[in-house]
Specification:
Blueprint (H helix, E strand, L loop, with lengths): L1 E5 L2 E2 L5 H15 L3 E6 L1 E2 L1 H4 L4 E4 L6 H12 L6 E4 L8 E2 L6 H11 L5 H10 L1 H14 L5 E4 L2 H9 L8 E3 L12 H14 L6 E6 L7 H14 L4 E6 L8 H6 L6 E5 L5 H6 L2 E4 L8 H8 L4 E3 L16 E2 L4 H9 L4 H15 L4 H45 L1
Parallel strand pairs: 1-3, 1-6, 2-4, 3-5, 6-7, 7-8, 8-9, 10-11, 10-13, 11-12, 13-14, 14-15
């Protein structure tokens, strides 16, 4: 098949979705499909595999970017066009952001009652927010495209908030490379990484991936850390990721946690930090699917997150994950439970078993099956159109023949 993928950046280092898209393209190439990629940015790694790149100009406007992608996609006449969140021209649509309207509703619900009118005003007056909402509506409009949801939570948002027909929505949980992300890495690298970070064996190392955090969630984590410090629970937070989304040092200092927080900054490889950590913290208010939960679980590293994380639906609270209520007190309580090393080890083993049920090739096969469904339906439609034209032509010829007689 001739398959076109549309996304903002074809760079496996840009984020979770981009890394999955890159591996997905490689999988399609191994199956001898012709793969075209429409994107604003292509990394060096992207140029080293035999895709056909189509670059669009950089734009801060979601609508202009969507139109530019459509202009590149239409002439390709691909068997399947899969949009990963940047345009409205597609046979298959999926987005790492899930339902933008669903996220806005949760933000309003989480806000104090007196702050909700102000938040609504900010959302309505933000040109970028308005454009994102318009793009989301156009992406989900119509009856032909198939919408892939990364979790049941997002699928419900699509059906309830966007009023999509359930038969248009398919849940495909992202998978994880269970060979790359494996418990053996913890045995090989744990001590060396902790030594480099200056964290001793008795201290709980709490890992935070900055890309998983939203504005306001740092305050929850820092208040929990302060509670733990007050109870003399040895805990140290290690933050990795883009410095544009890591907590500013002044916030760390304001909470009096300079000795309890280490900001590493951007990294190319999460594995060493999964190896060193005792628990992964993902205190999100809304996340369609945090792949980091599966990656950590595959390494035997348990996590703490909320019900607002779509990936949490794969796990069982208290068995292979801890779900907290979003407050600092409950988060501190969940972290403290990891002082029981035997209990933590059991949870890590259970998390690994859960991750093994969701390998990367499983989600890959589900998406390819969707492509084949689209291509088959398109071929059937072409045949039906051809048959109708043939009948119309035959009927026209018969009419002309009778007139001549």
């Amino acid at each position: 098949m001739k398959i076109a993928l549309a996304l903002e950046s074809f760079d496996p280092q840009s984020g979770e979705m981009e890394a999955l898209a890159f591996e997905f393209a490689r999988g399609l190439l191994r199956l001898n499909h012709e793969v075209h990629v429409v994107a604003q940015h292509f990394s060096k790694a992207g140029s080293e595999i035999p895709i056909v790149p189509h670059r669009i100009g950089s734009s801060r406007s979601p609508l202009r970017r969507a139109a530019a992608a459509e202009a590149k996609l239409r002439p390709l006449r691909a068997d399947v066009v899969h949009d990963l969140g940047i345009t409205w021209y597609a046979d298959v649509f999926s987005s790492r952001d899930g339902s933008a309207l669903g996220e806005q509703q949760r933000q309003l619900a989480d806000a104090a009652w007196w702050a909700r009118p102000f938040k609504r005003m900010v959302i309505r007056r933000s040109p970028r927010r308005r454009q994102q909402a318009e793009l989301a509506i156009r992406q989900l409009d119509g009856d032909d495209s198939i919408v892939l949801a990364p979790s049941q939570m997002v699928a419900r948002d699509y059906c309830v908030i966007h009023d999509l027909a359930p038969e248009r929505v398919r849940v495909v949980h992202p998978g994880v490379d269970i060979k790359k992300f494996s418990p053996h890495i913890r045995k090989l690298r744990r001590e060396a990484v902790r030594r480099r970070l200056g964290i001793d064996a008795r201290t709980l190392l709490l890992l935070a991936l900055a890309d998983d955090y939203q504005q306001g969630t740092w305050h929850v984590v820092f208040r929990a850390l302060r509670r733990l410090s007050g109870k003399r629970v040895p805990a140290h937070l290690v933050v990795v990721g883009d410095r544009r989304v890591t907590p500013p040092q002044r916030l760390v200092d304001r909470f009096g946690l300079a000795e309890n927080v280490t900001v590493v900054g951007p990294i190319d490889d999460r594995l060493p930090y999964y190896a060193a950590a005792d628990v992964l913290l993902v205190p999100t208010r809304y996340a369609p699917f945090s792949l980091s939960l599966l990656e950590a679980a595959a390494c035997g590293l348990p996590s703490i997150t909320t019900q607002g994380n779509g990936a949490a639906e794969l796990f069982t609270d208290g068995s292979d994950i801890h779900l907290f209520d979003g407050g600092a007190a409950d988060l501190a309580d969940r972290v403290e439970r990891f002082r029981d090393s035997a209990r933590a080890e059991r949870m890590g083993l259970a998390a690994r078993r859960t991750a093994m049920k969701h390998p990367l090739d499983r989600s890959f096969s589900q998406v390819v099956a969707t492509y084949e469904e689209v291509a088959t339906a398109r071929a059937r439609a072409v045949r039906n159109d051809g048959a109708v034209l043939a009948l119309e032509h035959a009927a026209g010829s018969d009419f002309v023949h009778r007139r001549a007689a």
